[in-house]
């Protein structure tokens, strides 16, 4: 919270490892992303950098983040990062032959819907926000800088940015437990298929209408809309009340 503005964010630990230098690593390697294995791999000065967007992330900072904490690192956790590294070794056999020089773990902030917060804060004069970059802040910086400059100079964005507009923040999201649980899911969603109609699995049932039980007894499969559990569709007979995501 700053200037009376609540920005719902939670930190998660983000892990990467850097190998030893090897002549076998070409300088012009493209970045490899393997969403099934939850890894990205990039060449870094003759070494390979292997980063993780694991399915179940490790939230951080539940006891508060010290004022002095700035661009610091956190202890490695091989119990957490190890399974992702093993997947990486299966995909890239060279990792079985060269050692790991550095393990790095640093916190990054995540929003409850995996989208950044940009733009003018509603009901406040001249407070603009550009935050919640969900681990893609460096790659997003150029575009975000451009649209924020336009937004501030002209009072509106030159392009439609409703999905990242800070105006979508809701009061019920000012809830540390909600944010902690949700952030354990959102980090991994970066490397998941972005299904239309995807329903979050964590931090559900925050707001139910008085009709919730009635709708449930009628077979409702609920989805979340602005924190409310909403009956999105009704199961027939033995149909499972679950979203099944597919290409079909
Ligand atoms: C390990 C790791 C690897 C990453 N790798 C990538 C990557 O490969 N590609 C990518 O796109 N992104 C990556 N990211 C994410 C990226 O670093 C962030 O998304 C980005 O730095 C966020 O930028 P920011 O300006 O919002 O916040 P920050 O970079 O955190 O900057 C915030 C600034 O505000 C300052 N500040 C804080 N409080 C105050 C205050 N009260 N008054 C004044 N100043 C204050 C801080 O000192 C800091 O300088 C990575 C993150 C981590 C942790």
- CATH class category name of the domain at 11-108: Alpha Beta
CATH homologous superfamily caption of the domain at 11-108: D-Amino Acid Oxidase, subunit A, domain 2
**Mean pLDDT level:** 95
The shape, in one word, is globular
* Small-molecule components bound: flavin-adenine dinucleotide
Q: Can you give the helix content as a percent range?
A: 10-25%
Major beta-sheet overview: 6 strands, antiparallel
Assess the beta-strand content as a share of residues.
Answer: 15-25%
What is the N-to-C succession of helices and strands? EEEEEHEEEHHHEE
Secondary structural class: alpha+beta
Number of helical segments with 4 or more residues: 4
Q: In angstroms, what separates the terminal alpha carbons?
A: 44 Å
Beta strand count? 10
- At CATH level 2, the architecture of the domain at 11-108 is 2-Layer Sandwich
Do you know the CATH topology of the domain at 11-108? D-Amino Acid Oxidase, Chain A, domain 2
In the predicted model, the low-confidence regions spanning at least 5 consecutive residues are none
Alpha carbon gyration radius: 21 Å
Protein name: FAD dependent oxidoreductase domain-containing protein
Domain FAD dependent oxidoreductase: 6-151
Organism: marine metagenome
Domain FAD dependent oxidoreductase central: 154-205
